[in-house]
Inverse folding.
């Protein structure tokens, strides 16, 4: 009986299903990854050995630029329906007698990066399309004793979202006086627990050294 | 992801127009996607910054009603964060009659820095028993001698810290020229050395003087001294 001859074929593997799966995974990763938003001021965070991850939600982040300006960022809460940001802005507007339109509130809700605009300039900042002007308006949130807008932001942020945590993101070179002022304002508002945002660093302590 | 390409051996004989199935070589595309996926996975997982928790004592609204906490001077270690990334330490406390005397009698400051040989050595020296116990415990957890979950291990360490009554009580004070990096560094040192009791307090005016004298800068105007 003659052998059954199989036709010669090149060992081609069909890659199409693999491409399909990869495509799906890639799209998923692209969509879920949160792009790091460009912050209004570059900040080099100090190093620490802490391994606790930064919370995704319920955080108000204070950005302390090396030049002493203070920026603030609040998230919208764990669910998009909650819309914490526009609520806080409405409260701030009421406090300072400024009424924000629907479009302005929506614009504020969508902002991802920190803001450091005095409340009087807020309307101008929200309505402008010019990036340079927007940048120029970011003069830091006023926190003097005469015009303590930062304290009010903290107050309303905590009223709207009681579960909010304070995170501090400071530059290594930021003067301590600025930090101390911020801590003072937070403590006045009964916030005593802070999370300092740092970059992970390795540190070892060997037992032999201690035993000396 | 290479692909083996084997030449198809055409049979001899009549040459016919072959029916060629149009096939696209997907391999480079797969390669590229593999790279992209790896990139996004790494970026998504690693880019998250870490946080360090710090809890400050609650602000007392009316200090006249509450007595200040009493701590023993022998266990107290004062750390003053100075300008130019310097750290100054002095043990114990300054008595009121010492700093109000003219000229004030102030304890000498020991100058160190943030390196492993600097402040860490000072802290480990004073916190030897506790640091040793925590280090040994962590070693045993890592080597599997004590089967314990990560959360329980953390709790056990914090229990050790609460029970400890020999280690130093560290008071951290910052001079106005210190920067935020110093503040985080010193808190980090507390965690590294396993200091059980530490807190951040406002610097007193005589301590500002001490830092100024040690760092060799002109003292600030008397008006700021209360």
């Amino acid at each position: 009986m003659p052998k059954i001859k199989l036709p010669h074929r090149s060992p081609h593997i069909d890659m199409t299903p693999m491409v399909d799966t990869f495509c799906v995974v890639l799209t998923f990763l692209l969509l879920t990854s949160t792009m790091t938003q460009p912050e209004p001021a570059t900040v080099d965070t100090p190093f620490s050995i802490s391994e606790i991850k930064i919370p995704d939600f319920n955080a108000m982040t204070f950005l302390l630029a090396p030049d002493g300006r203070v920026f603030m960022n609040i998230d919208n809460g764990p669910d998009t329906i909650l819309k914490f940001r526009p609520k806080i802005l409405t409260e701030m507007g009421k406090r300072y007698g400024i009424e924000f339109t629907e479009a302005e509130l929506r614009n504020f809700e969508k902002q991802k990066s920190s803001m450091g605009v005095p409340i009087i300039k807020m309307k101008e900042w929200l309505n402008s399309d010019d990036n340079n002007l927007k940048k120029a308006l970011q003069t830091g949130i006023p926190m003097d004793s005469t015009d303590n807008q930062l304290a009010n932001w903290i107050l309303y942020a905590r009223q709207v979202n009681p579960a909010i945590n304070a995170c501090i993101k400071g530059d290594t070179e930021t003067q301590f006086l600025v930090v101390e002022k911020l801590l003072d304002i937070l403590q006045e508002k009964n916030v005593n627990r802070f999370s300092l945002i740092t970059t992970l660093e390795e540190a070892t302590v060997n037992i032999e050294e201690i035993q000396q | 992801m290479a692909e083996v390409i084997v030449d198809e051996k055409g049979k001899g004989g009549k040459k016919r127009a072959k029916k060629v199935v149009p096939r696209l070589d997907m391999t480079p595309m797969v390669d590229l996607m593999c790279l992209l996926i790896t990139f996004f996975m790494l970026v998504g997982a690693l880019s998250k910054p870490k946080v360090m928790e710090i809890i400050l004592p609650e602000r007392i609204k009316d200090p006249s009603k509450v007595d200040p906490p009493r701590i023993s001077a022998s266990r107290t270690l004062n750390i003053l964060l100075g300008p130019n990334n310097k750290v100054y330490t002095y043990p114990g406390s300054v008595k009121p009659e010492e700093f109000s005397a003219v000229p004030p009698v102030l304890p000498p400051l020991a100058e160190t820095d943030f390196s492993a040989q600097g402040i860490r050595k000072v802290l480990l020296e004073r916190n030897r028993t506790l640091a040793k116990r925590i280090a040994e415990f962590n070693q045993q957890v890592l080597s599997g001698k004590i089967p314990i979950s990560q959360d329980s291990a953390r709790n056990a360490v914090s229990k050790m810290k609460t029970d400890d009554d020999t280690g130093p009580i560290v008071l951290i004070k910052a001079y106005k020229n210190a920067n935020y990096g110093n503040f985080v560094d010193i808190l980090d040192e507390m965690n590294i050395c396993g200091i059980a009791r530490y807190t951040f307090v406002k610097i007193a005016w005589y301590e500002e003087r001490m830092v100024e004298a040690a760092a060799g800068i002109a003292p600030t105007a008397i008006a700021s001294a209360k």
